[in-house]
Design goal:
Blueprint: E1 3-5, H1 17-26, E2 31-38, E3 43-48, E4 62-67, H2 75-85, E5 94-99, E6 103-108, E7 112-113, E8 116-117, E9 119-120, H3 130-147, H4 159-168, H5 176-186, E10 195-198, E11 207-209, E12 215-218, E13 225-228, H6 229-244, H7 249-256, H8 262-283
Antiparallel strand pairs: 1-2, 2-3, 3-4, 4-6, 5-6, 7-8, 9-11, 10-13, 11-12
Helix pairs in contact: 3-6, 3-7, 4-8, 6-7, 6-8
Bound molecules: adenosine-5'-diphosphate and magnesium ion (MG).
Magnesium ion binds near residues 205 and 206.
């Protein structure tokens, strides 16, 4: 999902009263520091005695709030995936999750390595070290795919399931011409290269690095599920180009340990774009 780091956003972010109210309920007296907003009204804030969102304060958790009926993945579904994945790999520890009439939320502990809070690879300080970050992102994705077991994973998200969900989404119905175009473009997915537990949104912003730029952890696993590994690889490589600039995709793939697969990359980027278009329609 395309989103903005609040710290580099041109417009200051107003934290809505509903998020302040929730923060007061979950962590009485905590300061509320906006960290990230996505384009569908979701807002992530950090709760705690912080001077700035990037400062190191291990006990300050992250609160993601998503308004009711947002097309973003449901924080409660994300909490289920975090709890499951947390038995096998490094993802944020779930402290609280819930829903009320206004929206849903997820409260997670800050991920720390060596006593310091790991921070997103999208932070501007990684731009001068984009090659290092690109390698860490490839290494991290490989670790994710190698570590999580497909045979016991309760979440499945194959290309065919995703295409079916697009064509049957009642909140963004397609007309006959659109459905035919979608079917032509995406109805015949390439056979899976290797089925793994995919992250589902393995972008630069959702990868955390440690203080020196090594892979630390993934966040934002609301779309985690078993699928072809190129579903993640296609999105990760494109995100690296978009966030850091051209020329780094071969580094990501080399760090992951795979040769480029142009057909699967093209297919899974097109599928991602079709889903993004539907989300935008639902939001409108
Ligand atoms: N537990 C956590 N530890 C460290 N950083 C976090 C944590 N949770 C969220 N973040 C930061 O907040 C950002 C937004 O959270 P995310 O779950 O990705 O929201 P969205 O679904 O809106 O993209 C992440 O990119 C990451 O920088
Ligand atoms: Mg995210």
């Amino acid at each position: 999902m395309s989103s903005a780091l609040v710290g580099i956003s041109p417009t200051p972010v107003e934290v809505p009263p509903v998020v302040h109210g929730l923060a007061a309920r979950l962590r009485s007296g905590a300061t509320v520091v906006p960290v990230w907003r996505n384009e569908y009204g979701g807002l992530t804030v950090r709760l705690g005695p912080l001077a700035a969102p990037t400062s190191s304060a291990p006990s300050s958790p992250y609160l993601k709030w998503v308004p009711d009926a947002s097309p973003s993945p449901d924080p409660l579904a994300e909490a289920d995936r975090l709890v499951w994945a947390g038995s096998f790999t490094r993802v944020p520890h779930v402290l609280d999750a819930g829903r009320d009439a206004r929206g849903s939320w997820l409260l997670t502990a800050a991920v720390e390595t060596d006593g310091e809070v790991a921070t997103s690879a999208v932070e501007p300080r990684w731009r001068p070290y984009a090659e290092r970050a690109a390698i860490a992102i490839g290494v991290g994705l490989r670790r994710f795919h190698d570590t999580l077991p497909t045979d016991t994973c309760p979440f499945v998200r194959t290309a065919r399931m995703r295409v079916a969900a697009l064509t049957t989404d009642a909140s963004a119905p397609l007309d006959d011409t659109e459905r035919a175009a979608l079917d032509r473009a995406l109805g015949d997915p390439p056979p899976p290269d290797r089925l793994v537990v995919c992250h589902g949104d393995a972008t630069v912003p959702n990868t955390l690095l440690d203080r020196v730029g090594r892979f630390a952890a993934h966040v934002d696993v609301g779309d985690l599920g078993v699928g072809d590994r190129w579903s993640d690889l296609a999105v990760t490589t494109r995100s690296v180009s978009r966030r850091y600039g051209p020329g780094l995709e071969p580094l990501v793939l080399a760090a992951y340990g795979v040769a480029p697969d142009p057909e699967r990359i093209a297919y899974y980027r097109a599928l991602w774009d079709a889903e993004e278009a539907v989300r935008a329609r639902r939001a409108a």
